[in-house]
Specification:
Blueprint lengths: L1 H20 L10 E6 L4 H14 L3 E7 L2 H5 L7 H4 L4 H22 L1
Parallel strand pairs: 1-2
Length: 110
Amino acid sequence: EWFGLEGLAKILHVTAQICASGVNPRIRHEGVLMTMYDGRNNLTQMVEEDVRSFFGNKVYQTVIPRNVRVSEAPSHGKPVLLYDFKCSGSQAYISLAGEVLKREKELIAC
């Protein structure tokens, strides 16, 4: 959603300030994750297109869908993988973990 884009812009700004200040000149972003994703929503699709066109391959292919089970899990004191392993949100997070590990292996190989 648009507020998510504003938050992303602020994170990028703060990261640039940290880098420029010398506090951590090697700080970098590993990737951008689309969350609360609802592909039926035109706004979601527009935001995704904008983010993917700007960040390119930094955007993870995995998206985390808007999912009630993901929202319910914290109120039961559990991570979603323990609350409902088979829900679409859990499966998306498992997919993301695989994608993150694959990227890390590629970085190490370079």
